[in-house]
Amino acid sequence: MPGVNEVLSALSMPPLLIHFLLVVALSFTIGLGLHSYRQTNNQDLGFGSTRTFTLIGVLGYVLYALNEQKLFYGAGFMGLSILLGIYYHSRADERTCSLISPLLAFATYLIARFVRLNINSVDNYDLFFRSKFIHNRPTRHAGTKPSSSC
């Protein structure tokens, strides 16, 4: 099975464009999921829709890619924190507060950080999790109790 590096090299697109498209797709999916959740629970749309979450993800990606020290990215996170704090406080006054939207907005902003990680590390993480959690699972025999250690 080809690794992530082989698939990305076969696409022959610049890594920045691939990362950008991945951030847009993930952000859009998060916004779509939240929108669908609200509609099925007959809630008002409130803060954020698919466009809002896509823009938050793009903002996080652009600010993360701008400089090496990540000062803009940190400033953007602080600005987003202030705006979401004001939003939550206004909703708390109305007694209709929920942390789902602000937490998903933070997660969407942070997607850029994880997407921009070295793409080689994805294969290493995949190998690590396969070796730790799939191949080395303890076997349990029929009639034995599972161990209570965590």
Give your account of this protein's structure.
By secondary structure, this protein is an all-alpha fold. The chain has one domain. It has helices at 4-11, 15-40, 50-66, 71-93, 100-115, 120-134. The relative contact order is 0.13.
Blueprint (SSEs and pairs):
Blueprint: H1 4-11, H2 15-40, H3 50-66, H4 71-93, H5 100-115, H6 120-134
Summarize the structure.
70% of the residues lie in helices and 0% in strands. The chain has six helices and no strands.
Major sheet details: none
Mean pLDDT: 77
Structural class label: mainly alpha
Characterize the overall form.
flat
Task: Name the helix and strand elements from N-terminus to C-terminus, one letter apiece.
Answer: HHHHHH
Low-confidence stretches: none
Number of self-contained structural domains: 1
What is the beta-strand fraction? under 5%
The percent range for helix content is over 70%
Q: How many helices in DSSP terms?
A: 6
Radius of gyration: 20 Å
Distance between the termini: 33 Å
Tell how many strands the DSSP assignment holds: 0
